[in-house]
Backbone:
């Protein structure tokens, strides 16, 4: 029996809700989850949050009304098993001999996934607890864990993407979910094409961005910018899909055109070493600054001259939305998420996914002051007042239906 609440003299049982996420480091899906947890009615719902890896930067931001937080702190043990170690050695040897390693690496991944899900079943889901609603807040392997390990009357999965790199994984487990939510309408229309057999299960909930909170944070400090230079800014995880290589190559084009700028990468991630090497090789060490991940990147966005989103893929474009709230002129590659948010040449500029197009559009905003002011004026008139109400209503519907 779940916790109870008093409703007009009648004791009502709370809905038991389980939500899983792969980790809580700073990222778009994780920030969206924090917003989702704030949108839930805790008078009616008893929420358990399960985090599959102990990467926990955003843990202090989790709503205090979440009744239980389960953290799998033993996730690295799967990589230390004898079979994994042996197969990793095989991969190393094959690479030395210039033999293709794709199939061997896939075997390792499948073994690790199977081992983790089996471990989770034994240590976290062996009590037979039944939930009313189980939500996998990310697709792929976390969804597979929820599908196999969690007992629930209804299961929901969120698809935070607009491409399909793990089709075989998702196609196999989506049958176990009642609903598949994307994070924008544009992403939903694309993802539907990958899974036509599940088209009736799809819906979408746009990620919520707290405009008031972002504005308040943006005033906490003023970055030490050189006012004699054009200040550019890009925020996000330094992963392949975020396009920091495009940004560096665009920066080289701008420099060769004689534009005096400083470009701040408020970022960190697995591609950092490669990006730093690219910056050095292109002679841009005086033009690009990598700050690392910051708890509060918003003063950088607010005080830059142009915000740049160079992504290869965005399903929603959370940082684009944040930059719009802060009325920063934006140049973004024309990803599905960006096109869902931006009206080209009205409230931002959309460009092709190439370094040249990115550089050309940045130069357009630098040189065309009338267009820049038109975009700023449009951004200043945007109304975000109903965003939270709509977001809460959609989450209420998700849990109740």
Residues:
């Amino acid at each position: 029996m779940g916790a109870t609440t008093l409703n007009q003299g009648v004791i009502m049982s709370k809905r038991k809700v389980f939500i899983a996420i792969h980790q809580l480091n700073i990222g778009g899906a994780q920030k969206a989850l924090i917003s989702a947890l704030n949108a839930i009615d805790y008078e009616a719902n008893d929420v358990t949050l399960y985090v599959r890896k102990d990467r926990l930067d955003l843990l202090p931001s989790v709503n205090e009304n979440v009744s239980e937080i389960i953290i799998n702190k033993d996730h690295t043990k799967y990589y230390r098993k004898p079979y994994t170690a042996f197969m990793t050695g095989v991969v190393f040897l094959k690479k030395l001999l210039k033999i293709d390693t794709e199939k061997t690496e896939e075997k390792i991944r499948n073994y690790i996934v199977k081992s983790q899900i089996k471990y989770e079943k034994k240590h976290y889901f062996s009590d037979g607890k039944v939930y009313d609603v189980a939500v996998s807040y990310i697709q792929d392997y976390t969804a597979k864990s929820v599908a196999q390990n969690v007992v629930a009357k209804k299961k929901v999965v969120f698809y935070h993407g607009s491409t399909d790199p793990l089709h075989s994984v998702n196609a196999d487990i989506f049958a176990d979910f009642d609903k598949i939510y994307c994070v924008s309408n544009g992403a939903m229309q694309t993802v539907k094409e990958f899974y036509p057999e599940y088209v009736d299960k799809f819906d979408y909930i746009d990620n919520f961005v707290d405009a008031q909170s972002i504005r308040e944070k943006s005033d906490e400090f003023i970055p030490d910018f050189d006012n004699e230079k054009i200040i550019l800014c890009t925020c996000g995880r330094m992963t392949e899909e975020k396009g920091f290589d495009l940004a560096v190559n665009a920066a080289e084009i701008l420099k060769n055109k004689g534009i005096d700028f400083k470009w701040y990468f408020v970022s960190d991630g697995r591609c950092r070493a490669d990006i730093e090497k690219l910056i050095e090789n292109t002679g841009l060490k005086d033009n690009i600054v990598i700050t690392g991940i910051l708890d509060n990147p918003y003063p950088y966005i607010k005080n830059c001259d142009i915000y740049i989103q160079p992504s290869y893929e965005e399903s929603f474009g959370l940082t684009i939305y944040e930059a719009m709230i802060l009325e920063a002129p934006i140049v973004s590659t024309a990803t599905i998420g960006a096109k869902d948010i931006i009206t080209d040449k009205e409230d931002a500029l959309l460009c092709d996914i190439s370094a040249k197009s990115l550089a050309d559009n940045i130069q357009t905003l630098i040189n065309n002051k009338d267009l820049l002011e038109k975009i700023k004026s449009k951004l200043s008139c945007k109304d975000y007042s109903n965003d939270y109400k709509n977001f809460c209503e959609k989450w209420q519907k998700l849990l109740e239906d």
Summary: Confidence is low (pLDDT under 50) at residues 1-10. The longest strand covers residues 151-159. Residues 5 and 311 are 46 Å apart (CA to CA). The longest helix spans residues 102-124.
